[in-house]
Design a protein that fits this description.
- This protein has one domain.
- It is globular, with a radius of gyration of 19 Å.
- Helices cover 78% and strands 0% of the residues.
- By secondary structure, the chain is mostly helical.
- The chain is built from 15 helices and no strands.
- Helix 3 crosses helix 12 and helix 7 runs antiparallel to helix 14.
Length: 286
């Protein structure tokens, strides 16, 4: 396998992992991007899209259009990544729905392990843990804990609502620690969009993708600026967000534990933790 093909394959695998995480309430695809070593590349590649190819396209200069397009968009990165994310979304929608309905406590126990491990991995990214960092962690832990305790909004599934929901959720999806799926859950769109994916409702899927793309292009510039100018504070905030997010899988798991095996619950938390831990170690070697 040549180096370019090998690199594309590893990016595709990361995309699969990100897509798998993003479809789960309480787990962030941004976290997976971070622990697999492509987060800054992802943020940089998205925020660097300036649409410089539009001008030659509008003037009918197709040679310049092609040149500018290749300069503006990192296709070698985006194609395998988005392919992996799309395949994960389409293939796992029904599986996740089934697991959440039939094995609720066990599924959320696994998710709990994933989130705890993700918070730990992010902690290792801090150069030092000082008083300022601890205060930021505490503030964002409390705010997120309160946020995830909110009740879902009763909303319709019209095209404008789906578009706006995607716009908001994608901002969460790109942040390590905040689950875009959980935001969709709060907005009353999560189950509906899973059904759309499972049944390939094209109009709703396209509307959601358009909202997500527009939100992504704007929000990544903010994240890039924060990481460049306030990296330690940003990472501390993200750790707090992850710790606060633990409330969601814990409450769901605890409320569904009747008739479950406590040993299996603990084992799944540990397995979830080590899945993320091993994933991070593996991709650091790539």
């Amino acid at each position: 396998m040549n180096s370019k093909l090998k690199n594309a394959f590893y990016i595709f695998i990361r995309g699969l992992c990100m897509g798998s995480a993003d479809i789960v309430p309480g787990v962030s695809g941004g976290t997976i991007a971070l622990i697999t070593g492509i987060y800054e590349h992802l943020i940089g590649a998205i925020s660097n899209i300036k649409f410089i190819w539009l001008k030659p396209l509008l003037h009918g200069d197709f040679h310049s259009f092609k040149t500018k397009l290749l300069e503006d968009i990192d296709f070698e990165f985006f194609i395998p990544l988005l392919l992996g994310i799309a395949i994960a979304f389409l293939s796992l929608a029904k599986v996740i729905n089934f697991c959440l309905d039939v094995y609720t406590a066990y599924t959320f126990a696994f998710f709990l392990g994933l989130i705890i491990a993700s918070a730990y991995i992010l902690y290792t990214e801090l150069e030092e843990l000082n008083i300022k960092s601890l205060i930021i962690v505490a503030i964002f832990t409390v705010l997120t804990f309160i946020f995830v305790g909110l009740n879902p909004i009763a909303a319709n599934h019209s095209i404008p609502i789906i578009f706006i929901s995607a716009l908001i959720a994608i901002c969460a999806m790109i942040l390590p620690g905040i689950s875009g799926s959980f935001v969709l859950l709060l907005l009353g769109q999560y189950q509906y969009m899973l059904t759309c994916l499972a049944n390939l409702k094209i109009a709703d899927i396209i509307t959601f993708v358009l909202g997500a793309v527009i939100g992504l292009l704007g929000f990544t510039r903010v994240i890039k600026w924060l990481l460049e100018h306030y990296k330690a504070a940003t990472i501390s905030a993200l750790i707090g967000i992850m710790l606060g997010t633990i409330r969601l899988p814990y409450v769901k798991m605890a409320s569904s534990m009747a008739g479950t095996n406590i040993i299996a619950i603990v084992a799944l938390v540990i397995i979830g933790f080590f899945v993320i831990y091993v994933l991070e170690k593996k991709f650091k070697m790539v």
